[in-house]
Design brief:
Chain lengths: 117, 110
């Protein structure tokens, strides 16, 4: 099946620094990738839809200048949390949709746990 | 607005008993419905989708448009079914994002 990887799996950073998280589709091309965040014991909340070669579409309430998304190729999307603060600490999960698929199934990465001190 | 509701945060049943995880949705158009499962320390993975009409690991789910429901059922629960289950909705056309319910943690007792 389709595999999505994320790097790093966890990261600890100081307040005010920026952190980049990578999401890769390993064996398929993904024209669309999605970024979610998940707080403890809560569901996944979509942050933005990342489209290859164009600007990301952000959900209401998500600051696009704080969460920078780049989807430069069909297999890689990056999320950069700029000037991170402790309230940004969360579990960030990406997913990718197989371009060949006619349906809306998404394949999920293992997630990245971000802790901002 | 699109919304998915899973009324039970926790569900505990005994091995061999039937299990039903409830999911109701709100959407004005024609949605595609999914059940995703997350086993302990694993990533989220697709369990089944309504358009496939499949039975996966003994689970089935029928889309009831009249009741706007997509309940997940299994006649005989197994211990390995213990996991977090998320119901999700996606518009068939247009934006292909997923809207997730809050999730139900299913525990199968021996």
């Amino acid at each position: 099946g389709a595999v999505v990887s994320q790097h790093p799996s966890w990261v600890i950073c100081k307040s005010g620094t920026s952190v980049k998280i990578e999401c890769r589709s390993l064996d398929f091309q993904a024209t669309t990738m999605f970024w979610y965040r998940q707080f403890p014991k809560q569901s996944l909340m979509l942050m933005a839809t990342s489209n290859e070669g164009s600007k990301a579409t952000y959900e209401q309430g998500v600051e696009k200048d704080k969460f920078l998304i780049n989807h430069a190729s069909l297999t890689l999307s990056t999320l950069t949390v700029t000037s991170a603060h402790p309230e940004d600490s969360s579990f960030y999960i990406c997913s990718a949709r197989d371009a060949r698929s006619g349906g809306n199934e998404q394949f999920f990465g293992p997630g990245t746990r971000l802790t901002v001190l | 607005a699109q919304r998915v509701t899973q009324p039970e945060k926790l569900l505990s049943v005994f091995k061999g008993a039937p299990v039903e995880l409830k999911c109701n949705y709100s959407y004005s158009g024609s949605p595609e419905l999914f059940w995703y499962v997350q086993y302990s320390r694993q990533r989220l993975q697709l369990l089944l989708r309504h358009i496939s009409r499949e039975s996966i690991k003994g689970f089935t789910a029928d889309l009831n448009k009249g009741e706007t429901s997509f309940h997940l059922k299994k006649p005989f629960a197994q211990e390995e079914d213990s996991a977090m289950y998320y119901c999700a909705l996606s518009p068939i056309q247009g934006a292909q994002k997923l809207v997730f319910g809050q999730g139900t943690r299913l525990t199968i007792n021996p």
